[in-house]
Amino acid sequence: METSGYRLLLPEGTLDYFIISDVKESSTEIVIYLEEKNEVPGEYSSMQVESKGFYEPVVVQDFPIRGKKLFLNIRRRRWIVKDEGRYVSRNWKLVAEGSRITHDFASFLKELY
Question: Origin, by domain of life (predicted)?
């Protein structure tokens, strides 16, 4: 399925950190599946870090589009710091201050962690 047009429905800056992995559309709703890119957060770039999959997805309802409910199914990535054996994820508070991601979207992501 072609997903490029659905990028227009996302908050500004979302695709800086996520990719659209899938879209499901029915007569009553649209679900956009987002996966965090495998790009190590800046604060861990000097460490040996390896991607270890994703946290459980979170579904967020957004503004309806042309009479259809819009949902964002968000999968945040986690990494392991090899030397320490601890899991880390992106600090969304830092991202919101230094990027184009919307404050509302960043607040939501911050609450997930």
Answer: Bacteria
